[in-house]
## 1
Amino acid sequence: MAVVEAPESPAAAERLDRLEQIWRSRPGLLGWLTTTDHKRVGLLYLWTTLAFFAAGGAESLLIRTQLAQPNSHVVSPSTFDELFSMHGITMIFFFIIPMTTGAFGNYLLPLMIGARDMAFPRMNALSYWIFLASGIFLYTSLGLGMAPNAGWFDYVPLASRAFDPGRNVDFYCLGIIFNSIASTLTAAQFIVTIFKSRAPGMSLNRLPLFCYAQLAAAFGLLFALPPLSADTIFLFLDRNVGTHFFDVALGGKSLLWQHLFWIFGHPEVYILIVPAFGIATSIIPAFTQRKLVAFPLVGIAELLVVFIGFGVWAHHMFATGLPTISLVFFAAATAMVVIPSTIQVFAWCMSFVTGTPQFKTPLLFIAGFIFMFVTGGLTGIMFMAIPFDQQVTDTYFVIAHFHYIIFGAAVFPIFGGLYYWFPKVTGKLYLERPGQLSFWIVFVGTNLLFFPMHIVGLLGMPRRQYTYPDGLGWTSYNLAETIGGFLTAAGILLLLGNLVYSYRKGADAGSDPWHGPTLEWATTSPPPEYNFPVVPKVTSAYANWDRDDREEDRRRLAEGLFVLEQGHEQVEVSAVDARLSDVVPMPHESPWPPLLAASLALVFSMLLLRKFGVAGVMAVLCVLTLVGWHSREPAEQ
Amino acid sequence: MSDHILAGRPAAGRPAAWWAMAMLIASEATLFGSFVGTYYYLRFTTRVWPPDGLPKPALAVPLVLVACLTATSVPMQLASRAARAGRLGATRLFLVVALFVQSGYFAFESNDFGEQIKHRFDITRNAYSSIYYVLLGADHAHVFVGLLFDLWLLWKLARGLTRYRVNAVQAIAWYWQAVIVLTLVVTGTLLSARA
Amino acid sequence: MTRQRLELLQWVGLLLGAGVFAAQLVVGFGITLAECGDGGNRFGIGNDLWQGVLAGAAAALVAGAEAAAVTVFLRTRRTTYEAPPPDGRIRFLAIAAMAANAVFLVIVLLSGLASILGVTCRPG
């Protein structure tokens, strides 16, 4: 039972009251608009990303409807271009990344490391508001009929002014840069928080694997987003100012776009799946009731897969005519990048085999994830062979591969995680039977949707074509895929319906329904605003299983040790061994994050309209907002 | 504040503000790495460099200016030390000295930037001119942001030293060290066209 | 061995291999770009020689990092990776480094060898 639920003495209860008063959220809508509480920011991210997931899903169902039959005219070719471009952009930048980092990462990271909040709570809120603003910015393009239409990877010369003269690609360039500011801030936040805000005693060998996964994704984002920004800056300048980065006639190079894009793009796909690995490594110990096999190897594998992932980018360019001696560097790294993933798969499977698995809904989704990830990984390693890659480039085989990976290795754990942490966030239990049913429908649906794509790809069906002729043997596979798509959607609706219903009518969960391994299960469901009444004592990576330490927490509260009730404060530790080093004041609610996000939105809107002078004025507004932000120091609040 | 839990030990390690600045520096360094990589990619795939008979970059003026900027690394570092030691007057003095030289650098460089565009070649000439001005312009933009940081810091320090402001001095000094290194790299890259 | 020396070896083991892999990839790829691009080969040294020296040096450094990691692992055999810091943390990061450097070594050797054995500048 969490300390907060049953204080042992009147003194302890008094301390809890005081903490509650100090950390109480501002009520009402204004409280949500100005929040800096990582849990509230995480929930804002959750709802917003689910809305974008629905949009991306709708786009995919329209694509599948168009492709269900040959010679179809459900949508026009230009609309189809916008659909598959927006589907990719939405799912990657506005669903998976913000869901796994912004929603799961934000809500859980401080709880798992025993902190009261992130290192920079106002910057955390800023990440959310910028993310929201960038999503609105991009979707405005859809409303105006000017959505990006050159694919999510937006290759030149197709995306150059000569071939795509409208504002579609300008929306893309600016929307991507705008969104990347949010993700960069999140990345910086997570890295500093993980190193500096852990509970004392949580040295690097005691850091939960979920946190290693978020750390890996954060490093990935920090170093992968700048090349994309450079690329889109170059493209925007080429299109609007008249530079010649990609203009072959005047010394530019089309391949420059591809190099910079994939230097971002390949790490990006690891960033997509690594936090989901972290979700898996949280769920497996809970439902097998054993520590994860090979803990140090899994921890380094999370970091290694992202790091090596920075060195494989040109495997997306095997069909561009680059010399073989250039390509071999990337083929070699691609061959070996599978090793860290294999280490993890082995560790997960061994944990199943050597533990006592309880196949409740979260673990079912993880089992499904392992199956889908291995399948997708096998086709991925086939691409390492340059001749094979050149045969299947730009066919549906590639689409099959990456959807098995992304849907399997990112979305399945997200669904599992939604079920797993639902009791912690809401205090209620979800319904188990409908949960398991939702898993099976989604599992069958996604395999029906994506498996035939391997076959139809090998039969030669190219990507990004709005229709296809009859008589090529592709029709029945496409129809099956469309049915699979709608089946998957039905499964997802059942999943969401289960959670909504359970939120209203579910049974009480208590603080720890799963006997979970990490610290979020050591506090109430939902957690109080201050997360923990005392700085938790940590002596292992599975802190909630250390009953002695949790008893010590009760003693600390009773005796008033490490309660930190003199103000809105939390501890800071040394980076490697988490030795206590400081006590720092934390901010309360603040209006500056949404204000700064709004100012930035104005800058990007003016850039889109090519009013560069006005954009400059708006930038001054941003600077003034930043000055306002720093006008009152946290200790003065 | 519950400082008593530190049991009299002084705060150890670098402040979170320094770490945040390290993150910003890492991100910006990678951005510039992309620009520099682009420069060399275009160079390795172009027969003559600079192409189209464009003039090679000047040597003397950039080197002198960059040397002046590099020298401000010293007062910035001294300001950081003075702030940590609680010496407000010394901190302000070192910052003002650094700001004076940095502003001078920026003024000369901006003027030179404008002159180059007007009289030598402008950004829309070809791929070389595109990457040349983006590299140079991005570097100057970061110097400009550094000037804004300095001004803000001096404004804050007008009301005395608090722990927040000491952390800010350290973070901004760190920013300037990074911008100086960046400027050296950018200058070296652009001047390599003379080779 | 002193604690400081052990700690230094641990960090070298963890970080050197990673840095060398990254450097060999970027520089090796850059060499092929210079060799095969229009900008041409400026020093008259062939791709194969560049790549051989680069891969050889890189492999030696990664092997050194691996040796450092193994040394730390052996010196900490009386503790476990779950032990309190710094000993437990040092062993933990040494285990991590041993696995990572093995992977880096294979990549360095594979890519260097393939770049030498491939026909220079033939399009892929």
## 2
Amino acid sequence: MSEATKREGDAIGVEALRPEATVEVEDPAVESRNLTVSYGAKVAVREMNLRIPRHQVTAIIGPSGCGKSTYLRAINRMNDTIPRCRTRGQLFVDAEDVYGPGVDPVLLRRKVGLIFQKPNPFPKSIHENVAFGVKLHYFASKEELETIVRGALEQANLWDEVKDRLDEGALSLSGGQQQRLCIARALAVEPDMLLMDEPCSALDPIATAKIEDLIFELKKDVTVVIVTHNMQQAARVADFTAFMYMGKLVEFNRTRDLFEKPRESLTENYITGRFG
Amino acid sequence: MPTAAERKALTKGLLKLNENMLTLAELSELSIRKAVEALAHPDHALAEDVFTLDQEIYALQIEVERTCGDLIALHAPVASDLRTVTTSLKMTTDLDRIGRYAKDIAEISLQLPAGAETWYGKLPGLAKMVDHTIEMVDTATDAFVRREAERVRNIAEADDAVDALYEATFHAIVQFMKDGTLEEETGARYLLVTRYLERIADHAVNLGERIVYMVTGERVPRVRFADRAAGRDTASRREAKRP
């Protein structure tokens, strides 16, 4: 660790990421290099270096305000819409720097979908919700559209529950169904990656279990990055887990190792509740 | 992340678990001491004490299992907390087995014919085997209390010494039986005693391995006796060469 890096780490009470506190990832789906995101004078994510494995589920955990959602939203440039938000460093999705010149954020978001904390279906029919993104990006015939909508709803484990009421309003669905509809909507445009920002925090345990089952199945087709406050959820669904604290990445490890034998005392103190 | 209140409740549960584990380890060790004492100086009351201790150990084992179940179900512990709970669950089995072997020795003390106790002192290696075995359990208990992995990392070495004493005592008993100085039934029962002590030492090794995992998260690799012996030879040769 260079003196300069150490000093910077010390300034916020967290040392820079130690090589022992991370694992090698070959051919990452996402790679951030010295990514710093700030809101005005406040630095939310600081010098973040992380390689997110392809076709795996990666959880990001950490206390409120540690920068995990900011980092997640940086991946598909959702922070662009926030006034005074500034991003420095590099972030590669499939080896392309998404903050490089000429990158179309709309096309990026087709490739990298985002699921929010609270389900946010459009006030339209179930069918229209799923078809919306497809119509935006492609010209699809009616038959093609039907196939895509059905495929996305099946992939989101929702088809059997809504197949007879596709024209009903999406807002008539339960919270858990609405969240799976949002996932189907994101899947309909065939993304490579799904970002999930606490997708189950507004759901009951049964709806949560359905989403978790879905996440497990989805990784066959997409890379999943999930921000969660629920450590048991991270332990259940994620292959890898990143722990962030005060804007910095403290540890990135296989989930089993991180929860059984964390390499940093800061991680241990956080996950066992011995914090502060 | 658990809240402060949840952490407090978990800490309370872990403290209770720690206390029960310590008591369990102490009772197991006490039962060996009493059983061996009953063997060396035939004393029915001492043997009865060991049977009572066995009951207490079993009850405490159930209590520890219940506490561990509650901690897992109510607090979903992780990291060192999880290792403490899972290790305690495994250690109770070893400690219970140690108590059962002590009980078996106490039973033998009641079955020996009058005068057989004099063989306790005559059998070469037996008293030493008892001391080594008790020391191994004591060391493991202490390492658990102090969370000191290094104290038990090489506990298998101590077991090698017990195994060597077991072999020596075994052959001595067989020889005494062959030449007719040791009556067959008494000899056979002493053979069982040595076997039980050797098994207790094996369980102490298990305790040591589990304590290393609990403290550090590392799994101690199982090394064959021959490889350990070869390692010792190399180390002693290196030591001898030092100026």
